[in-house]
Amino acid sequence: MYVLKALLDILSKDRLYLSVHPEKLEFKACVVETALLIPHEDVVRSKVDLVARDIEVSGCVKYPVLVDARSFVVLDGHHRLEALKEVGIHFAPVFFVDYAREYVDVYPFRKEIYVDKVSVLRKALEERRVFPPKTTRHILTGVSVLPNFTKLEELENPARCRKPVVAPGVYCCD
Predict the structure, then answer these.
(1) Which CATH number fits domain 2-172: 3.40.50.880, 3.40.605.10, 3.90.1530.10, 3.40.30.10?
(2) What whole-number distance in Å separates Cα of residue 90 and Cα of residue 171?
(3) What is the pTM of this model?
(4) Contact, 147 vs 65, CB < 8 A?
(5) What is the mean pLDDT of residues 50-79?
């Protein structure tokens, strides 16, 4: 629970976007307004361009972006998120997890930069800065994020297919 304590220390309780009900979002695949998502890593521009072309050609996003249900910090999928913004889509498919729980682990991709859950949260929420690209690797134990092939039409108008849950800009299926 040290992650939850750190999160509360970093932000005042009233600034935690969904601190009251993370269990309503945990393990849900939703569509979320991109402006609500907070990155913790930078991206490689050439990879964003490649992913954007793939999204435009296929007409869908294969995998959702992995996001913490309490803080809306992006854990995995920064390139997908930026690619969606680049092609003019203002919503992203998201799979929510509870970063304070033990089934989520983070490991460094870069030996020269120390990372743990608290440093990821501090970088994104307190410093409002990002690590270099491919600094962290998040591993889920006992949870699989499956491809959901979210169509661009659904991302262009998520209210048509889904209903708002918990907050404006977050659309989930039952």
Answers:
(1) 3.90.1530.10
(2) 13
(3) 0.90
(4) no
(5) 97
